[in-house]
Amino acid sequence: METHLPALVCLAFVRGNAEPSVLVTESVRVWAGSSTVLRCRQDPGDSLLLLTWKVLLLDNSHCTLQLNWENLTNHNNCSERMRPENTSLRIENTAVTDQGTYTCEIANSLGTFFTSVLLEVLVEPSVTLELNKLGVPECRAHGGNPAANISWIPEGSISTNRAMEPDRSWTVSSTYTATSSNVTQVTCIVSHPTFPQPHSSSISTAGSGRILWVRVTVSIIVVIMGLFLIVMLFSSYGQSWAQGCLREVKMPEPQGEEKEEDEDEEEAEWSHTQVAAKLKALEQRVSALEKQNQP
């Protein structure tokens, strides 16, 4: 499937006795995975001496493909998916990495002619809308080309990031923060050349504030309990270390006092176990609260 952008003016330079001319060509948009045909606008007639396609990709890599009057083809770093058909160039299974400028150079008895075609490959993105870990609406358009455009209704505080994937497609993520307490539902609108019309989806924000409050509160409690456990551990091990040092410099103490020390150590170990059990119970309670507050 090919679609065409507004026409671009491309100059064709003619060498020899022929008059210079101006050729009008168009940028070409195709779907990823399709078979693409790029046409050289100049008709060489029966006097073709040499046809050259020079390819400059968006990553600045380049290659050259030549076809001479004996129909012998020479690939110079070009993909095997590219092959000439008369004066046109066919690209099988077109990929985003094939985007770039393709220049056709025809040499015949009249001179040498140049034309260029700008190729853009379209990939439809997948769209998701959900509350992220912070309870904030997040809209994502993943794996599209070109990068999608994301907007929100109603207006709010928006943060948008774009990232290029290894296959040179784009992932766009946008988060929404309400600037009014009256907002209970938001709508994400994603626009892309592959969509017949903008894609829209909505999500409720009624429970997002409570989820965020629960997470913050639980985080504070966990930090406090963790600090308490650390203090107890240092206190217990510090006391044991000090008592060990005293044993090295003092005479053996009566059997009864050694028994009391053992009981103190057992009591400290029991306290640590009790704190760990409370932390585990707290984590289970947090998980239950989060499930209850899912919209």
TrEMBL record:
SUPFAM superfamilies in the cross-refs: Immunoglobulin (SSF48726)
Entries under Pfam families matching the protein: C2-set_2 (PF08205), V-set (PF07686)
One GO biological process term: regulation of neuroinflammatory response
Alphabetical keyword list: Disulfide bond, Glycoprotein, Membrane, Receptor, Transmembrane, Transmembrane helix
Cellular component terms per the entry's GO annotation: cell surface; membrane
Listed Acidic residues bias regions: 258-268
Segment forming the signal sequence: none
Topology within the bilayer: Single-pass membrane protein
Gene Ontology terms for molecular function: signaling receptor activity
Localization (cell): Membrane
Membrane spanning stretches: 212-234
Region (Disordered): 252-272
Span of domain Ig-like: 20-120, 139-204
Family: Belongs to the CD200R family.
Name used for this protein in its record: Cell surface glycoprotein CD200 receptor 1-A
